[in-house]
Amino acid sequence: MQKFILLRGHEGSGKSTFARTQIHQFQENFPDAHIIHIDNDLALTDKNGVYHFDFEKFAQAHRDNMAAQQAAFAQGQREPHRPMLVINANPNQKAKTCQQWIDAALQHGFVVEVYRLHRFFLNLHGVSENDVQKSYARLDANPIAGEIHIF
Q1: pLDDT digits (tens, 9 = 90+) for 110-136
Q2: Which pLDDT value is given to residue 91?
Q3: pLDDT for 33
Q4: Could you tell me if 10 and 136 are in contact, meaning their C-beta atoms sit under 8 angstroms apart?
Q5: Residue 92: is it exposed, middle or buried by C-beta count within 10 angstroms (0-12/13-18/19+)?
Q6: Nearest Cα residue to 5 out of 147, 151, 136, 150
Q7: Domains defined along the chain, listed by start
Q8: By C-alpha distance, which of 138, 149, 117 is closest to 16?
Q9: Is 35 strand, coil or helix?
Q10: Residue partners of 145: CB distance under 8 A and separation at least 6
Q11: Regions of the chain where pLDDT drops below 50
């Protein structure tokens, strides 16, 4: 089993928590699986779990993560019998970009699941309520065909 999971959601929607749950479930079914967790926030969180936004670090994390995602797809294609989960927990709001990632995963033989998270937890990044609502609205305006809605 090789699976690509794309999590779409505004700040505070529970993407990181949902990602950990999906990773755990996959590992239960495939204990020897190779897991690639793509999350720009991981690069902005210090060893004490405190989030510090820095645009340059964020931009570099994004570039590094996209390279890691593409490398994982290529590895999956080279090793089709190796269980692998690639999970991208970034809130990209551009349907076109998300579709490119989905298409790349499919071209490399991955099963694809897309989740749209609608929950509203306290966001840990200090994003204003107004900006969270704008992010939510942008996601609603840019749906992905077949995405699974989690309320």
Answers
A1: 999 999 999 888 776 677 888 888 889
A2: 65
A3: 96
A4: yes
A5: middle
A6: 147
A7: 2-150 (3.40.50.300)
A8: 117
A9: strand
A10: none
A11: none
SS3 content of the chain, % helix, strand, coil (to 5): 45, 20, 35
pTM reported for the whole predicted model? 0.89
CA distance 125 to 58: 13
Q: Can you tell me the distance from the alpha carbon of 150 to that of 65, in angstroms, rounded to the nearest whole number?
A: 25
Q: How far is CA 139 from CA 13, 77, 83, 108, 136, in A?
A: 12, 30, 31, 26, 5
CB-based burial label for 124 (10 Å; 0-12, 13-18, 19+) = middle
Place of tokens 């794309």: 6
**Angle separating helix axes 55-78 and 95-107, nearest 10 degrees:** 30
Three-state SS for 75-133 is HHHHCCCCCEEEEECCCCCCHHHHHHHHHHHHHCCCEEEEEEECCCCCCCCCCCHHHHH
Are the beta carbons of 150 and 117 closer than 8 angstroms? yes
CA pair distance 137, 146, nearest whole angstrom: 18
| The amino acid at 55 | F
